[in-house]
Amino acid sequence: MWLKSVLSKIKGLFMRKKTIALALYGPPNGGKTTLANRICSDWLGEEMGETSKIAHETRRLFRKGKVRIVHEDGREILFTLVDTPGIASEINYEEFVNEGMDEILARQRAREAADGVVESIGWISEADAVVVILDSTCEPYTQVNELIVEKLNELRTPFLVVANKIDLKKGSVDRIQTAFPEHSVFGISAKYGRNINLFYEKLFELFERLN
Amino acid sequence: MAHRCTQCSKIYYDDTTILERGCVCGGKSFLLVNMDSPVHDMSIVASENGFRIEVDELFRQSGKSQRSNTHIRERGKYAIDIKKEFAQQSK
User: Fold this and answer.
1) Which chain A residues contact residue B86 at CB under 8 A?
2) Which chain A residue lies closest to B70 (C-alpha atoms)?
3) What is the pLDDT of residues A34-52, one digit of tens each?
4) How many CB pairs under 8 A join A and B?
5) Which of A144, A161, B5, B75 could, after both became Cys, cross-link A183 (CB 3.0–4.6 A)?
6) What is the pTM of this model?
7) Alpha-carbon distances, residue A156 vs A117, A146, A187 (angstroms)
8) Complex prediction ipTM
């Protein structure tokens, strides 16, 4: 009997499930880091990264381990949160200069952003689950959005499509939903926490699809 | 680093000589080539002695060959073939 128990414990050590990696993907300035900060503030009491109105603020992958979300019914999920650089096909330093950035820093930012895009795409196959975050004030029919969703479907990675920035006047969940009719899109405001409980609820549903 | 003539694509491994006499085809413009990486668009960073020297910034920074889908239009302007980048990813 004790031998069975010992064997079970040894098996448990070697068969331990790796921590689930939940990655946030999307185009630049969709609110990935704002959402990451919201999740980390809510459950860890600390923020994850800097945000900016200038695109490509996040230019490399950021990971936050052991994020535990507890449901009011007692269920809990544990994961490593991965904030990724926004994916874009064109990066132009002039865009940053127009926002008031020094030219040298703008060129450097552009180069780092180009590296970040490659790193971001290169990591997509490593994610166990993904939240695709789109700006609900922007046109969703883009090559970037299409390619992200297409790749996730191909990889069979479970994912959510979230329409962020619904606090803004121009924000429209319907706009995003129309572009992704096969997915149940829902709106949030990561900045102000609007619908954040719905987001956590959906996260639990997403994790159930992993089992 | 080797130099590649932009006119005939001939590659020279001795860069000091080539800057003095130019290419056998008469070309006077060269690209600095990282032989570990595929050659793609490069940006002009220096011009001296009538010769144009161009350097791929990303290659210069990383020295790696994994940036073949990133094209430098000019310094600070990049085009990334994200379709190819995505296509290279698999579980």
Assistant:
1) 121, 124, 147-148, 150-151
2) A114
3) 999 999 999 999 888 777 7
4) 75
5) A161
6) 0.74
7) 22, 15, 23
8) 0.84
